[in-house]
Amino acid sequence: MTQVDQKITSLLNSASRYDVSNLDIFENCVRDQINKGQYSILNNLVVLLQYSIYPKRTNLEIVQDILLLSIIRGPLSSDFLSCTYQIPLSVQNDPNIKQIIQLNDLLTSCRYANMWNLLKTNDQLRSKVEKIQGFYDSIRDIIIYSVNCSHSCISTAVLSELLDFPKDSTELKNIIEKNKWILDSACEIIRIPLPENPIENVDSNANKNKSLGSNEVIFKNYLNLLSNN
């Protein structure tokens, strides 16, 4: 994801970020993130902060967009949690907000089949995520990263279910080739070489420009969740 416009960055880094007259600018920045593949957690937290100060200005569509943008940062990022801290419970109880929180819970607990089912059966949620540039690709990158770090082999049937691609699809074959996995067509098993250092190779979308450091425990717990599902 690219960074937002420098003019907005300057506003965010000044006292002007607390000026409600700039809220429209920050909301438009959220829309640009949806349409242009940009990202700014600072902008999004400022929007949520202003909503908490001026609740009558709350735009639930923008809140949904902010949460969905934070989901695809990955389970090792604290962005989603940081956003929910800024959202009052009364807003979190909105049905459309609750389903996004549920989506994140399914992703972070590695219940990928349930996550895809939620997206397929909920038209409103699906229409929201499909407007976000690269949403599905980012979700699949997170799943691929998890599989790469937690499995030495996996059946094509299971991988197909996790990624929501047909077993014989070109997309699945491309993923296997891209990750240098080895497909045994006779028994439909994919062998996954052990990463040299999985903790240092965290997907850039999930942990961009950050050192894992204290998140190592989170990482290990995350892999345990995946292995137990």
From TrEMBL:
MF terms in GO: ribosome binding; RNA binding; translation initiation factor activity
Gene Ontology biological-process entries: formation of cytoplasmic translation initiation complex; regulation of translational initiation
Domain CSN8/PSMD8/EIF3K span(s) in chain numbering: 59-191
Q: Name one Pfam family in it.
A: CSN8_PSD8_EIF3K
Q: Which UniProt keywords apply?
A: Cytoplasm, Initiation factor, Protein biosynthesis
Top-rank taxon: Eukaryota
Query: PANTHER family of this UniProt entry?
Result: EUKARYOTIC TRANSLATION INITIATION FACTOR 3 SUBUNIT 11, EUKARYOTIC TRANSLATION INITIATION FACTOR 3 SUBUNIT K
Give the family this protein belongs to, as stated in its UniProt record.
Answer: Belongs to the eIF-3 subunit K family.
Q: How does it assemble?
A: Component of the eukaryotic translation initiation factor 3 (eIF-3) complex.
* Name of this chain's protein: Eukaryotic translation initiation factor 3 subunit K
